[in-house]
Amino acid sequence: MDCGNSVRWGAVRKGVMLSAEGLGVLLDAERWLFRELDLAVPAGSCLALVGPNGAGKSTLLRCLYGTQDATEGTLRVDGQKPDERSAPFRRSVSVLMDDSALFDEYTPRQHFEMLGVEEPEHGLPEVPARGLSAGQRRRLLLLGAFTREHRVLLLDEPERAVDAAGREWLAGLINDTKGRGSTVVLASHFSPLVDAVADYVVELVP
Ligand SMILES: Nc1ncnc2c1ncn2[C@@H]1O[C@H](COP(=O)(O)OP(=O)(O)OP(=O)(O)O)[C@@H](O)[C@H]1O
């Protein structure tokens, strides 16, 4: 992956699953959250976004999922312009964002049925989601994101509310999906997770 102004752009670069060219998001009339950001992330690898609160990690993830427009620059995710309303895009990209939510009335099994995926081993109680602890809810959200078919996985602070054992489990899930050829972009404040899974790190600075 390249980050900075050294990327040379061709029409198609073999193996690149996610790319940005000259990406910028204007924060207000005078300040750029980030600008001139170039990325080229190969299939089967993980890019970690790090930086302090307010640096723009979630904003960049929203741009990658198409829920926020960048002010300037171009993005391609699995060859597509990010657009969460596009069925082919949603087939390729799975997400856990900071506003991802469960259906409170649905049990874990019903969540997997709704996603149309086989229920994975999870050890969660078969109760409506509103009866799960914060960490159990987070695990269910994570399992939903990982279990959905994807070529690209976007994760915003997946470590939140997850205990020490769960963080190891999470690192294993990320490395497994990378091993199957998926590309992961992860925003995280937890450096042991970044160290365990990231092939590339971009630090955003406010
Ligand atoms: N909906 C919004 N409207 C206006 N400004 C926003 C909005 N969402 C975020 N911002 C601003 O954009 C900047 C970056 O926020 P962002 O959530 O991307 O940072 P972050 O790096 O993910 O932070 P954290 O580590 O706290 O999650 C902040 O200054 C924030 O106030």
Overview of this protein structure:
There is one protein chain. The chain is of the alpha/beta class and 206 residues long. Helices cover 29% and strands 25% of the residues. The protein has a single domain (16-203), classed as Rossmann fold (3-Layer(aba) Sandwich), CATH 3.40.50. The chain has 6 helices and 8 strands; from the N terminus they run E-E-E-H-E-H-E-H-H-E-H-E-H-E. Helix 5 links the parallel strand 6 (152-156) and strand 7. The longest helix is centred in the last third of the chain and has 16 residues, at 164-179. The relative contact order is 0.20. Residues 1-12 have low confidence and may be disordered. Bound molecules: adenosine-5'-triphosphate.
In short:
This is ABC transporter family protein. The chain is of the alpha/beta class and 206 residues long. 29% of the residues lie in helices and 25% in strands.
Kindly provide the name of the CATH class. Alpha Beta
CATH topology: Rossmann fold
Please give the alpha-carbon distance between the first and last residues: 22 Å
In order across it, which strands form the biggest sheet?
5-6-7-3-8
What structural class do you assign from the helix and strand content?
Answer: alpha/beta
User: What order do the SSEs take from the amino end to the carboxyl end, as H and E?
Assistant: EEEHEHEHHEHEHE
Q: Could you name the CATH homologous superfamily?
A: P-loop containing nucleotide triphosphate hydrolases
Name every ligand kind in the structure: adenosine-5'-triphosphate
CATH architecture: 3-Layer(aba) Sandwich
What percent of residues adopt helix (DSSP H or I)? 25-40%
